[in-house]
Amino acid sequence: MESLSIRIHALDKWGRTGNPPATANQLQAIDFTLYSPRLKRDASGNALGGIRTPFVDVPLAVLSGTGNSGGNGFCGLFGTTTPYNATELDARYPTQQVFVNAWTAATEEAVDKGFIRPADGQAPIDAAKRVQNSP
User: How many domains does the chain divide into?
Assistant: First the structure.
């Protein structure tokens, strides 16, 4: 539902201001078949290109975009998620504040680029701050 909301927001803004919706770089593929693409990946294991959000740019997991075996065809596009272990997380984010700062910057960039609605930008930042205060 959130992706529909951002699309409606972008379409409305385009109509009112003439500013077109956000665009992203195409996903970078080694080879691309509809239900089993082989994508180029960054050092975090996440796909290069595409829409960038804090979930991709400040990852807590590898988001494959491929490999879901939950059914034929379309389900394969949902991919799999493999969380980083505690050692990997500590190496990436030595303190919770390092994580919160990176997450906040990535969220603000996604809002600026039009991938997250301005009205929705604060919620992921607040969530990251709550994690900081968890035991």
Answer: 1
